[in-house]
Amino acid sequence: MQLIECPWCGPREEVEFHYGGQAHVAYPEDPAALDDVQWAHYVFFRDNPKGRFAERWSHAAGCRRWFNAVRDTATHRFERVYRLDEPRPVIS
Question: What gap in Å lies between CA 34 and CA 77, rounded to an integer?
Fold first, then answer.
């Protein structure tokens, strides 16, 4: 069992959390102007790197708040968690 650090509740078991996809994906400024192909790219196309990656997570069985995390997708190790109002860390 892996522990994930919730920014508000502290470390909790991974079963309390839900993955929310890639972090820092901007919502389209004018979604009504997108055609079907552009909308599909926004909804479904995401980066899928091997290594460090910024992701969104929800503490679904706890405070129910969303937060971001930098996680290594090869090892599944969480390197950093941060609230949505905190600046995006540099990922190298």
Answer: 37
Q: Are 85 and 92 in contact (CB under 8 A)?
A: no
User: Do the Cβ atoms of 82 and 4 come closer than 8 Å?
Assistant: no
Give the span between the Cα atoms of 37 and 26, in whole angstroms.
Answer: 17
Amino acid at site 18? H
Per-residue pLDDT of the chain (92 residues), as tens digits, is 899 999 999 999 999 999 999 999 999 999 999 999 999 999 999 999 999 999 999 999 999 999 999 999 999 999 999 999 999 888 87
Give the chain's length: 92
